Amino acid sequence: MFKLPVIKGRELVKFLEFMDFMVTRTKGSHVRLRSEDGRLTTVPVHGNKDVPKGLLRKIIREDLGISLEEFLELYSRYKGK
């Protein structure tokens, strides 16, 4: 079982930009991102709150279309940058 990191909304947006996603719009406290291959995701940026684990898991599996292992590897590369 893989342990997901605790990520703030703003940090997740920056990480997705590192993964070549681009911010397409912001409406209220939600940021919409799109990749060049058409994948879409919405990230809540509610002040300094963490993204809930279930939502993070949903973003990874369904929106990004990658496994948890791939996400953790990419995230560790991003944090080591």
Give a description of the structure:
It comes from Candidatus Argoarchaeum ethanivorans. This is Type II toxin-antitoxin system HicA family toxin. Keywords: Endonuclease, Hydrolase, Nuclease, RNA-binding, Stress response, Toxin-antitoxin system. InterPro entries: HicA_mRNA_interferase (IPR012933), HicA_sf (IPR038570). GO terms for molecular function: endonuclease activity; hydrolase activity; mRNA binding. This protein is an alpha+beta fold. It has one domain: Metal Transport, Frataxin, Chain A. The protein has 3 helices and 3 strands. It has helices at residues 9-18, 53-64, 68-79, and strands at 21-27, 30-35, 40-44. It has a 3-stranded antiparallel sheet with strand order 1-2-3. The chain starts with 8 loop residues before the first helix and ends with a helix. The model has no long low-confidence stretch (mean pLDDT 94).
The separation of the N and C termini measures: 26 Å
How many individual domains? 1
- Which sequence of strands runs across the widest sheet? 1-2-3
Q: What is the H-and-E element order?
A: HEEEHH
For CATH, the homologous superfamily is named as Hypothetical protein
Biggest sheet layout:
3 strands, antiparallel
Rounded to an integer in angstroms, the radius of gyration calculated over CA atoms is 12 Å
- Mind telling me which CATH architecture this is? 2-Layer Sandwich
Protein name: Type II toxin-antitoxin system HicA family toxin
GO molecular function: endonuclease activity; hydrolase activity; mRNA binding
Keywords: Endonuclease, Hydrolase, Nuclease, RNA-binding, Stress response, Toxin-antitoxin system
